[in-house]
Design goal:
single chain; 140 residues; 4 helices
């Protein structure tokens, strides 16, 4: 897989998170009750976006060493992301206030769509790898 493919996949993830963040901000500010809006929701994106991009990069480098390990790499990354999410939420859960429940709800409302997009990106990566293999077999 070429680096230009990787850049486009990372850009896709970043654009999705920015768009999701903008929609999330507008919904929290104008549609939901006041308790749901707090500028701390930016921490959700500051946590999930770098973690997602690092996971995609790690899976790309796993592909470079052995492309049969992409699935296992994605599974390991997903488990790490889930465990990291609990560590991220722990300070908010330990120091509870009126905003704790809405923050946790919003975190998972962002977490699951980002996981779906990451799955799409990894599947796209696998499809690119398979297409390259097919091309190499047909044109030795």
């Amino acid at each position: 897989m070429k680096k230009k493919h990787l850049k486009s996949l990372l850009l896709l993830e970043t654009l999705f998170m920015v768009l999701l963040g903008a929609i999330h901000f507008l919904i929290a500010k104008y549609l939901l009750p006041d308790i749901y809006f707090n500028y701390r929701i930016i921490f959700i994106y500051l946590f999930l976006l770098p973690l997602s991009l690092l996971g995609t990069l790690a899976i790309f480098y796993i592909h470079k060493t052995d492309d049969s390990l992409i699935g296992k790499g994605f599974l390991a990354f997903t488990v790490i992301k889930i465990l990291g999410s609990f560590v991220f939420l722990l300070p908010f859960l330990m120091d509870q206030d009126d905003f704790t429940k809405p923050f946790v709800y919003q975190f998972f409302a962002v977490f699951f769509p980002s996981l779906i997009v990451e799955t799409f990106v990894i599947l796209r990566m696998v499809n690119i790898v398979e297409a390259e293999k097919t091309t190499q077999v047909e044109n030795p």
